Amino acid sequence: MPVNTDHTHFEAEKLPKRPCALLWDESFLWGLMAWRALKEAGLPFDLLRAEDIRRGALSRYRMIFVPGGWASNKINALGDQGMEEIRRFVAGGGHYLGICGGAGMATENGLALLPIKRKPPRERVPSFSGPIRLSCAGHAMWHEIDTPIFFVWWPSQFHQVEDPSIKVLARYEEAQADAFSADINVADGGIVGWSELEQRYGILLDPSRLRGEPAVLEGRFGRGRVILSLVHFDTPGDRNGAAVLRNLWGTPSSCRPSDPLMGVKYEPGRSFKGVPKNILDSVDEIHTAITGLIATGVRNFLWYWRNPLLLQWRRGVRGLEYSTLAAMIGEIRRRLNNPGASGPDGRPALPEAVDPSRWEEELKEIRGQLTPFCEKAKRLLIQERLYMTNASLSPVECSDTEISRLRHELFASAMSHGGHFKRLIDPMDRLLYDLIKDE
Asked: What is the mean pLDDT of the chain?
């Protein structure tokens, strides 16, 4: 039966009919991850852009779900008007679910939906990733969760909660043996000793520092409910995460989608048109170039695929950006070539609303950006690999002038997405949004 407690069940009779809006802007890999996870869980939602929110589109929804990604970039995309629309929506009785970057966006320095702050980077364990056990407070979102092990991916950390109006729904407990802190496996770190490793890396690494830290929070903003999670319940393939999402949607956790997510299946009533061959060829060309870039990192022992969306990379390398490029062009290519994504005649198809001439322009822009990006990125990866033979490498600063120059050109100076990478990923993001927005 659906969860029905006054903790989490949304009062549907008092709210609009559409269950959830997923904010797409500035999410990239994390937006794709959330999209897949919600599809796998069989949950209804719509993708929304910041411009839709500024036009008042939230009035049609019960909840807004803001996935991971850099909170500052999301705030810039929304602008003052978009942020005010979200505040008005929640204050009026809508609900806010923020995961990782989406949680950070709702803290005091962002939307200020809850009076909570994030710890400064120097006080965090900044590079933890993988499965971790939680201790969970009594709440309907944990219905049918027998073993509360979930995934986190390089989370921020909240300050300890002192405001009695905020409930801590979960705290971190022990990291699992196959998790990582930076590029160190948790089991291996325990053998070497975390104190020694922290001195060598110059950052906090010991996963035991996370124990007891708040991971999931709940509070009120006006008449709306706010849930902020540093835990990625939207990790594709995670049964526990899918169960939590179904509980939050008010859907029975015992429900399962009838088929695994294998692409967009043709639905009678939806209009499709054939994909021009030059578009298919361009997508294949981009995919081949990015696959070659990923192979450069593999053969230089800089990373390997940890799961279908995320690389596990050595500390000092900007692995998230490379993961994002590979995952997003891979998804676009699958959408166009998977038989499940075909039109009624069985041929690769585009949604009728997509303008092929605009796609041709977007792909031309991507191809123009991609060649110099890949050339510089391959050179950077090899230089970073060689630098690591004599010294440890930070992802932010490096005494090698060539490495620093290439990094600045490719990614700009901050860890948030910028530089050549941002000019490359933005049009790719628009193409993927075109393919999946109406599913």
From this structure: 90
